[in-house]
Amino acid sequence: MNEGWNGAMDDGTNRLGWMLDDALRMPETRYAILLSADGLLMAHSERIGRDEAERQAAGMAGLQSLARSTAEFCGDATSMWRQTVNEFDDGYVFLVAAGPGAYLAVSATQHVDMESVSFRLQELVQRLGKELTSPPRPGAGGSA
Fold it and tell me: Which of 16, 67, 74, 111 is an S-S bond match for 84, by CB 3.0 to 4.6 Å?
């Protein structure tokens, strides 16, 4: 289990899903998922089913790993990865660092305002960071 991840979805409640839904109030956005570095789904927006969100989480973890491995191409192998944007005929996928061992992915149509989405994702990352680093409730998993 990743440091900082306090079981956002391990009980099937998708307790942070509402925060992702809030991010999708922007025009031309489609889906959002929160995932751990090892590709486990932590939360998903209402518009995407859990099975599809889990499949996408695994792929996004691989994408993030590939992007991170290219840091030297940007000038310094120790440079921290922050964001990856992939463009497709039908839209974009934004993948951003969301805290210790967590990533946020959002898909959008080709008509989305990319700058606004990037800004909104950084705001959401700040909010999620507080949730992801808060200590687990007493007695919730783990031994005392």
Answer: 67
